[in-house]
Each structure stands twice: as C-alpha cells, then as structure tokens.
Design a protein that fits this description.
5-stranded antiparallel sheet; 9 strands; 58% strand; flat
C-alpha cells in the first residue's frame, strides 16, 4: 500500500491514491487539477522516504471535486453569576480533494484514474411508466 503524508491548511493528512479527503479551502475551481509539493513522508512497497522537513522531488496530484461548508461549531461563553452569555457559530469552508497520484522524483508510485461521469441509476424509462399506467 502506497501512501503519503502531506501538509495543507496547517494540518498533516495521510493520503492514498483514489480516495478523497476534506481539507481547508483551496483557491482552485471544481474539476481543476492541483499539485501539492509539501510532502512530509512517502511509503511505497516497504520503503519509506522521510523528509527533513519535506521529501525532495515528491508531489501529490489531485482533482478538486467541490467546495462546501462544514458542520456548524457552536462557541458558548458564560460567566456565572454575572448574567453574561455569548453564543456564536462558525462554519469552516472545506474543499473535497480526490487524490489522483503520488509521485517521487518524476516516477509515479500510485495512480488512480478520476471518474469522468457519474451515472444516475434511478432514471425511469417512459415506456415502463406507460405500461404501469395502462394496468
């Protein structure tokens, strides 16, 4: 199993090719390719490349799937016996990133093809509806 540990948005994330991850907001449009150069560790077939702090020549390529907002986080502050209360909410901006490949020194270690279209399985044929209505 090939994986890499990347740093994005001030957080470190373990990523694998073919999976998607929710990370801090990126300045890229949906369906746009993104290359992340801040790779801290790459593990491939038992061999581990550890950076000091970054692995030289390692990149992770991904595709932005969509942007959305996370769940609401409530911040409630209260001082007892003072009748002082503050309630605030916050929703973090999130980018869903599909990891396409993990590269080391120009060599592709792990690659996963991004899906081009999503089929909708719940499409009903009009002839089936007419047959049911006739019965």
């Amino acid at each position: 199993m090939t994986y890499a540990i990347i740093e994005t948005g001030g957080k470190q994330i373990k990523v694998e090719a073919g999976r998607f991850y929710d990370i801090e907001l990126l300045t890229a449009e949906p369906d746009e390719k993104v290359t992340i150069d801040e790779v801290l560790l790459v593990q491939h077939e038992g061999g581990v490349s550890i950076g000091q702090p970054l692995v030289a020549g390692a990149t992770v390529e991904g595709t932005v799937m969509r942007h959305f907002r996370g769940r609401k986080v409530l911040v409630y502050k209260m001082k007892p016996k003072k009748k002082t209360r503050k309630k605030r909410g916050h929703r973090q901006e999130i980018t869903r990133l599909l990891i396409n490949s993990i590269n080391l020194n120009g060599e592709v270690l792990a690659y996963e093809e991004a899906p081009t279209t999503i089929e909708t399985p719940n499409v009903v044929d009009s002839s089936v509806v007419e047959e049911i209505a006739a019965e």
